[in-house]
Write a structure and sequence with these properties.
Oligomer: single chain
CATH topology of the largest domain: Rossmann fold
Largest sheet: 9 strands, mixed
Number of helices: 16
Shape: globular
Number of domains: 3
Distance between the termini: 37 Å
Structural class: alpha/beta
CATH superfamily of the largest domain: ANL, N-terminal domain
Radius of gyration: 23 Å
Length: 565
């Protein structure tokens, strides 16, 4: 590795004049200090809304303090890992701030995990306490004896909300196989106990954020308090028109909070600025999401391409008043130009595309707010962020040349939890994180993602980037969603395989799609295989899972197969 220099930040020439070149990652000593400042400053403001009820910042302060006292009383100490396995309900932020105030680190767990996925993550993190949604108890029960868990705190959806009655999927008294504590009981007990303040620093572990595990068992990105403070400061500095206003933002949170994107942007950044946060427990229910948008009239929305795509196709999206919307951020996967165009037609706002990873506390790059045209790029590196593009020989790519995106900055993890071998390959010799993504810088500093290294398709020696083919297919009339993978081919090494979900009532067939591709792509990029599905496999965050499509391709399954990610 020869990048022994600091790459020139040529992208900063395109910064808004108000955006600094660097931020202070020690603006607060810890996320707890940041949260406590917001709880006091905005005590009378509404912090969260869900199920027709609300929590004020003062409520979050009181309840999270009670939960911290309870955890400390139960033996949780500084540096312990506490698993939180919850959907987007008010108990999530209350539990999170309680865990952190107790001095522990939070392990964010997907509440729809299978037993095997849950077993791996709990044991890898060494968590002894878990805060879990009642509906996931059967999954935990099957593997509990094989885990490090010693304390189970069960949450029902309406917990923390006075007077809220939300039907619970599981009666906690019905399980006799392991002792349970109700979350509301923990809050009640903790309210009568003293909490011992913990003198946390920026170096303390904050989150174990597990990666998707597309290349093996998932790994926990070890994120510190300083990492998240840095990314909050970077986001707030880069978006002055969004966060310079004090306490008047309304955000709708449809992306899951256990994912780093919504956790950093929707929860922590917005909380630090006194925003009112409308939580969506299940974003797959698009009717409920649209109802919430109608009621909330948000100033800020985050999503992935699939979520925005579902919204623009919803028959009642025209009932939403978007007059207050100042910012819609897209991440997780490429936002397709067609989706952005439809969104702008409906709302008057572009989708501001960004880029980041679990390993980078969420955001590395973001487009500039207020620009009039969709850039088809993921934007400019944030303040205090250095990015270099490396070719296969680890030499820096020239401007306009593709290379692996390698990043350094205060928001980047210290490493994977207890994975020295993985860490040795995850970073260059001089500390740049290898993202595994291929990008190109334009002369004005915009970074465009070409694709993941592992998703690259090589046809007769020519590189085919799935995103490029997908963008062409998505512009074909009658296509609702699509995804491209490579398939082994005896003649060309690999060939392009296209999976398509038709729009409702579309009259679309393979020949029409191929003809459309021929008009826009060179011959080697045209799909040789076209398969129609009822739905594409997706993660809980809405990312299309190409690994599942590869498995389907090798299985020889027929068309119209429904896959569940």
């Amino acid at each position: 590795m020869t990048t022994s220099f600091t790459p020139p930040r040529h992208w900063q020439q395109s910064y808004d004049a108000r955006v600094p070149t660097d931020i202070n990652p020690d603006a607060w000593p810890s996320i707890v200090a940041m949260a406590q400042e917001a709880m006091q400053r905005y005590a009378g403001h509404t912090a969260f809304r869900c199920f027709g009820h609300s929590l004020s910042y003062a409520d979050v302060n009181r309840q999270s303090c009670a939960f911290a006292a309870y955890l400390q009383h139960e033996g949780v100490r500084r540096g312990d890992r506490v698993a939180v396995m919850l959907p987007n309900i008010p108990a999530f932020p209350v539990a999170m701030f309680g865990v952190l105030r107790a001095g522990a680190a939070q392990v964010n767990v997907n509440p729809t995990y299978t037993a095997q996925e849950l077993l791996h993550q709990l044991n890898d993190a060494g968590a002894q306490t878990i805060v879990i949604i009642a509906s996931a108890l059967p999954t935990l029960e099957t593997i509990l004896v094989g885990t490090t868990i010693r304390k189970v705190i069960v949450v029902h959806p309406g917990d923390t909300l006075d007077g809220a009655v939300v039907t619970a999927d599981i009666d906690t008294q019905s399980s006799q196989r392991f002792p349970l504590t109700r979350f509301d009981d923990a809050l009640r007990l903790g309210s009568a106990l003293p909490v011992t303040p913990v003198d946390l620093t920026g170096d303390d572990l904050l989150f174990l954020q597990y990666t998707g595990g597309t290349t093996g068992p998932s790994k926990g990105a070890a994120l510190s308090h300083r990492n998240l403070i840095a990314n909050i400061m970077q986001a707030r500095a880069f978006l002055p028109d969004m966060f310079d206003t004090d306490g008047d933002n309304v955000v709708v949170t449809a992306l899951p909070l256990f994912h780093v994107f919504a956790l950093m942007v929707n929860l922590l950044t917005c909380f630090s600025a006194g925003a009112e946060n409308w939580l969506i427990p299940d974003a797959r229910n698009s009717d409920d999401l649209v109802d919430t948008l109608i009621a909330a009239r948000p100033t800020l929305l985050t999503g992935v391409n699939t979520l925005y795509g579902a919204l623009v196709r919803h028959p009642r999206i025209g009932e939403v008043d978007f007059s207050r919307l100042r910012l819609a951020i897209g991440g997780g996967a490429a936002v397709l130009p067609a989706t952005s165009a439809q969104w702008k037609h409906i709302t008057g706002q572009e989708i501001l595309e960004g880029y980041g990873l679990s390993e980078t506390s969420a955001i590395l790059c973001l487009n500039v707010m207020g620009r009039s045209n969709f850039s088809a790029a993921v934007g400019l590196p944030l303040p205090s962020t250095d990015i270099v593009l490396l070719k296969d020989d680890d030499q820096p790519a020239t401007l306009g040349e593709a290379g692996e995106i390698c990043a350094k900055g205060p928001q980047i993890m210290s490493g994977y939890w207890q994975k020295p071998t993985a860490n040795a390959t995850a970073f260059t010799a001089d500390g740049y994180l290898r993202t595994g993504d291929i990008g190109i810088f334009s002369t004005n500093g915009l970074l465009k993602i070409v694709d993941r290294k592992k998703d690259l398709i090589i046809v007769s020696g020519f590189n085919v980037y799935p995103n490029e083919v997908e963008a062409v297919v998505a512009s074909c009339t009658g296509v609702s969603e699509c995804a491209v993978i490579g398939m082994p081919d005896e003649r060309s090494g690999e060939s392009v395989c296209l999976y398509v979900v038709k729009a409702a009532n579309a009259t679309l067939d393979e020949a029409m799609l191929i003809e459309h591709c021929r008009a826009h792509l060179v011959a080697y990029k045209i799909p040789r295989h076209v398969r129609f599905l009822a739905a594409l496999p997706k993660s809980t965050v809405g990312k299309i899972l190409r690994k599942d499509l590869r498995a389907l391709a090798t299985s020889g399954s027929s068309t119209e197969t429904i896959l569940v990610g």
